[in-house]
Input
Amino acid sequence: MSEPFDFEAFISGTQLARGTVSFFKVDNRPEIARLTKQHDAMPADDGDEREQSAPSPRKDLAAKIVALREEMEASRVEFTIRTLTPDELRTVMDAATEEPYDQLALQSVEPALTADQWRKLADRIGAAQFKVICDDANALILSKVAVPDFSRSVLETLSPPVSSEN
Output
């Protein structure tokens, strides 16, 4: 006689797909765009090596842009989110409002934020950054389950080709 099917053992170790979303506490995009436009409008720093190593307005702008990008990157905050279960998705889809805060509260893993906390965060970071978070969260829900292929370079690293010159 065969043993009864152990469903709990069958699904043991299964977990919902997870992903990472992020925002920047410091958003220097407008200043970076303004300085980049100024930089690009200036003539290129041509000339001999002595002229290229001397400070120039164009190099100063480029250095400011790099510093602003580094400051922004240093302020990045990441969240771990998960996809929704079918019942959670149905609840979100049936909700009377189309606000994303309840959905994000269900999806947030680390840190686990409430809908009210997501709303407060959205008010602080603005629509553009919050939209990116929402887009990433929705993409995780709608993503197809598939095991990605290995790239050729990864496969070659794992199994380098055998040289024919032995």
In short: The first strand starts at residue 18 and ends at 24. The two ends are 58 Å apart (CA to CA). The beta strands are 18-24, 76-82, 108-110. The mean pLDDT is 84.
